[in-house]
Amino acid sequence: MKYSTTQKTFKDRIISDFKKNKTIYLLVLPVILFYIIFHYIPMYGVIIAFKKFSLGKGILASEWIGFEHFRSFFKSVYFKRVFFNTLRISITNILFGFSAPIILALLINELRSKTYSRIVQTVTYLPHFISLVVICGMIVDFTSENGVITNFLSLFGMEKTNLLRVPEYFTDIYVVSEIWQGVGWGSIIYLAALTSIDTSLHEAATIDGAGRWKQVWAIDIPCILPTIVTLLVLRMGSVMSVGHEKIILLYNSLIMEKADVISSFVYRKGLLESNYSYATAVGLFNSVINMMLVIIANAISRKVNDISLW
After folding, report:
1. What is the pTM of this model?
2. How far apart are CA 301 and CA 295, in angstroms?
């Protein structure tokens, strides 16, 4: 009886909350449906990673072959290349790209002119809204033999050459362009966190003689630290997910050795070679690694800073 009463009470609370906030529930309904239809239901198709999938037979009727595709990928001559290329590009992007929005937000927060602050925000946000195809086209032009970036670097003694044909430059080009495209948009959440800081903290620090830089280190950064840690933990979940779109638009046969990543490998195997089972197996391996990294990062954060997602 006690169990039934508890269940009824919980049910009543849910019904009462829905009646009170039905507008909010209706607003969030399309988002829930989107994730169910396009993210959770398609997870059923992951089982083809363990099958010799045939379009004619369908998913359930296709031959079950277990971990054969995974073993084939691990033994492949491409495994080492795409795995370490993905790690190199992603870790470099996190090291330099994750801190860039934080620094920009702190700098914008220090601006006293609201007009100038809005101009800076608008200019830094704009690249986020430019089509990726256009962005990649600009990168190709700017890094060509007579491109703007190439000509600028030649002033410092660098030989004028097509930078996208030099394998050693690819990671730098990719990471710098990612920072340029996302630094403004990424700073929004940090600016929101900074605006929520109690102004009395800054006033007290000013009375105590603390300068602006001291206040940034002693007040601003500690106050937004939970936001930083949360976003870093989430970012760890995409370490192995370097987007194939930008890679494919930028790479060529001359730099394939340094530019080919897991996502571009999956694209070639799945869409170009129609090897759906093999591509799904590689993608599943990628997702499992990302999930493990999120769990590990969350556990470390909870132990060190008492800040975690769960």
Report:
1. 0.84
2. 10
User: pLDDT tens for residues 189-202?
Assistant: 999 999 888 889 88
pLDDT band at residue 234 under the 50/70/90 scheme = confident
User: What is the rounded CA–CA span in Å between residue 100 and residue 262?
Assistant: 26
pLDDT of 90 strictly over 80: yes
Per DSSP, the three-state class of 63 is: strand
Could you give the 3-state DSSP secondary structure of residue 53? strand
Going along 17-135, which residue ranges are E strands?
A: 51-54, 62-64
What is the length of the chain? Answer: 310
Res. 1 pLDDT band, cuts 50 70 90: very low
**For the chain, what are the domain ranges?**
2-64, 68-305
Residue with tokens 């990612």: 178
Domain 68-305: top CATH class: mainly alpha
- CA angle (283 as vertex; 282, 285 as ends), nearest 5: 65
Closest to 47 measured CA to CA, from 33, 32, 63, 34 = 63
Judge contact between 269 and 192, C-beta under 8 A: no
Cβ pair 277, 49 in contact under 8 A: yes
Concatenate the DSSP letters of all residues of 157-191 into one string: T-----GGG-GGGHHHHHHHHHHHHHHHHHHHHHH
DSSP conformation class of 128: G
Residue pair 210/226 in contact by the 8 Å Cβ criterion = no
How many other CB atoms are there within 10 angstroms of residue 62's CB atom? 19
Q: Which residues of 140-177 are buried (b: 16+ CB within 10 A; e: fewer)?
A: bebbbeebeebeebeeeeeeeebbbebeebbbebbbeb
- As a whole number of Å, the end-to-end CA separation of the chain is 32
